[in-house]
From TrEMBL:
NCBIfam families from the UniProt entry: PRK07572.1
Name of the protein in question: Cytosine deaminase
Top enzyme class: hydrolase
Record keyword Chaperone present: no
Cross-referenced Gene3D superfamilies: Metal-dependent hydrolases, Urease, subunit C, domain 1
A Gene Ontology molecular function term of the record: cytosine deaminase activity
Alphabetized UniProt keyword annotations: Hydrolase, Metal-binding
Organism per entry: Ciceribacter ferrooxidans
EC number: 3.5.4.1
Coiled coil: none
Length: 429
């Protein structure tokens, strides 16, 4: 007896027509035909069933704050940081919690059930940490929320940056963050990485660094991050987010840098939407794309995952909690339009991100947690093209979100009565 059987499902590896049996909050069977009964049966009708989406890089303390206290007129990273500095003293725990919970509601409908959020620790009040810790507990039944202690104004540069970060970790934040390129000098940036990796090693915590988020090819803090990772034995537990300076570095230096990153087992987190919006602002033409070297990093065997970074905040006025939107943009910016390329992009939104986040029991395998999403598309390639409706979202074997398929009605003589974009416009072999 199963609690739920999803029948006639297509799997991310391209397999078609499988049944997935869920019992006791776990995936109990994945077979061509499960000859058994269940408390509920759902026909996927040849749709894609996927593990949930993961966002390994987000700023939930800032989300939905667009327009407070004013708009980012220039649209630049630096004005966004300055604007956040104006808003930060006005933040209240109640408002932070309310906005974060609203975001999490939307995330569930998009099949996004695992999120790593950076939490600004530069204000000694640490109201952001208090609020997000409460949110982490409140959403635990349906979203796993990891919290990064992030010294937005610099570990050394902020007046009480060092003490505030340590206090935030003592409060229960999960991960050590940093922003070396925002320190006053390159040397201060280097020293901050040494200190942050040491703190992580002493506390037994992972590390996630906003690293080289700049167009300056001489911003090479990722080199130091890799070296300190090896020095403190943190291989596989460290993430370098953004890494946009790599798009401006010369090829010879990158040919040395990528093997060093591979040796340190650095997890790489580009943020396609934000990177191409904020980088290259000083260029006229030709204008740089602003995203790190995704194809080359993947080819070298590094674990590459994609983050959404922002939604409707001082840095980014757009966003929809849709990781397929992130992947869709990554395809274009990285020029990875081939079939196998798109499969790798999809993995970067799911299994790679789960690896970055250290998730256990994740994925469509027997014995893993019964967390999955049914999409209005036949396969992962079509999912990236269509950014389709999430028909069902299942957490621990229970349906927690359901959406009607997107069907367009037509009233045209001699033409079809309706259009299903997930069925009527598929590649023909």
């Amino acid at each position: 007896m199963f609690d739920l059987i999803i029948r006639n499902a297509n799997l991310p590896d391209g397999s078609e027509g499988f049944d997935i049996g869920l019992a006791g909050g776990r995936i109990a069977a994945i077979e061509k035909r499960i000859d058994a009964t269940a408390g509920e049966e759902i026909d996927a009708t040849g749709r894609l069933v996927s593990p949930p989406f993961c966002d390994p890089h987000f700023h939930m303390d800032a989300t939905l704050s667009l327009g407070l206290p004013r708009m980012n007129v220039s649209g630049t990273l630096l004005e966004g940081i300055a604007l956040w500095g104006e808003l930060r003293p006005l933040l209240t725990k109640e408002a932070l919690v309310e906005r974060a919970l609203r975001y999490c509601d939307l995330a569930v409908t998009q099949g996004l059930l695992f999120i790593r959020s950076h939490v600004d620790t530069s204000d000694p009040r640490l109201v952001t940490a208090e609020a997000l810790i409460e949110v982490r507990e409140r959403v635990k039944p349906y979203i796993e929320l990891q919290l990064v202690a992030f010294p937005q104004d610099g570990y050394y540069r902020a007046p009480e940056g060092e003490k505030s970060l340590e206090r935030a970790l003592d409060m229960g934040l999960d991960i050590v963050g940093g922003i070396p390129h925002f320190e006053r000098t390159m040397e201060d940036g280097r020293r901050s990485l040494e200190a942050l990796c040491r703190i992580a090693a002493e506390r037994g915590l992972p590390v996630d660094i906003h690293c080289d988020e700049t167009d300056d090819p001489m911003s090479r803090h990722v080199e130091t991050l890799a070296a300190e990772t090896v020095r403190y034995g943190l291989q596989g537990r460290v993430a370098g987010s953004h890494l946009t300076s790599m798009h401006s570095m010369d090829n010879y230096y990158v040919s040395k840098l990528i093997p060093l990153m591979a040796e340190a087992e650095i997890n790489v987190i580009p943020n396609p939407l934000i990177n191409i919006m904020l980088q290259g602002r000083h260029d006229t033409y030709p204008k740089r794309r602003g995203m790190t070297r995704v194809r080359e990093l993947m080819a070298a065997g590094l674990n590459v995952s994609f983050g959404q970074d922002c939604m409707m905040d001082p840095w980014y006025a757009m966003g929809s909690a849709d990781m397929l939107e992130v992947g869709h943009m990554a395809i274009h910016v990285a020029q990875m339009g081939g079939i196998e390329d798109k499969k790798r992009i999809y993995e970067a939104l799911t299994v790679n991100s789960a690896r970055t986040m250290g998730l256990e029991g994740y994925g469509l395998e027997v014995g893993n947690r019964a967390d999955l999403v049914v999409l209005q598309a036949a396969d992962v390639v079509e999912a990236l093209r269509l950014k389709p409706t999430r028909l069902l979202v299942v957490k621990c074997g229970k349906v927690i979100s359901r959406s009607a398929p997107r069907i367009g009605e037509l009233f045209l003589e001699g033409r079809p009565a309706s259009i299903d974009p997930g069925r009527d416009y598929v590649p023909r072999s």
